[in-house]
Description:
Layout (H helix, E strand, L loop, with lengths): L6 H16 L5 E6 L2 H4 L13 H9 L5 E6 L2 H4 L3 H10 L6 E5 L12 H11 L2 E5 L3 E2 L2 E2 L2 H9 L3 H8 L4 E7 L13 E5 L10 E9 L2 E10 L12 E6 L10 E11 L7 H20 L3
Helix pairs in contact: 7-8
Amino acid sequence: MFDGLHMGHRQLLQQLVSCARERDGESVVLTFWPHPRIVLNNDPESLRFLTSLEEKTRLFSELEIDHLVIIPFTLDLAALTARQFTHQVLVGHIGMVHVVVGFNHRFGSDSRAVLPDYEGMGQEMGFGVTRVGAVSFCDLKASSTAIRNLLNKGNVEDAARLLTYPYRLTGRVVGGNRMGRTIQYPTANIEVEDPLKLIPAVGVYACRVMVMGRHYGGMMNIGFRPTLQSAVAVKTIEVHLFDFSGDIYSEEIVVEFIYRIRNEVQFAGLGALKAQLSEDEKVARELLAGYE
């Protein structure tokens, strides 16, 4: 599914482009939408994505892939065995002459198609096979699951290393209680565009913000506003932009997570909260100044 398009995916795609050029062919990436777990009702409530379909498409456009094919995933498609899918779709419809697969890739209703299966089908149907091994950074294995686990712990730094870019949220600025303005820290309240997008752990983060065609540094709070009388039971996402004044209500906003500063905590009152936010700002500005 290429969720996150992390460094392991990118090594596979580099191999794909190389294979296509060697054969004077075209590189084709195939993925599914919606996610098979949603269609198959396989615990869809716990499913969270690193990238929405729009974000994934944008990331692919930055690479040297010739074609991105998004196949609607249906129950009929799910019923195909690996051999049927390979014969009908990959060879019959797309015209595949070579396939590049990851080290743990399986598909089909029979959950087969490990490397020997691919090689056997290749000899029968006339296509070559290249397998790409696992990719690691230090002791971290690049996988979508590993990155989700890191983000759920608030470890956005290691997540970015495996992704090869900072994790980001895309959403729209919505109305809030404007309490931040009373302590000189106005925030933009963000409604994420994809309800299945993974939100990192509760806490305060140094971030980069893109809005109205410009870039800003900032700090973001994810949590429940425990200090305020308007504390909520639903997790909120608020970002304070550095060196900005203006109205961005209803604008699209993209936030990149750079560092996690601290946990969300409850303070004795707004005065104590303001003092901590001042310290958070100093830390965030220093971190962002050293970030490349």
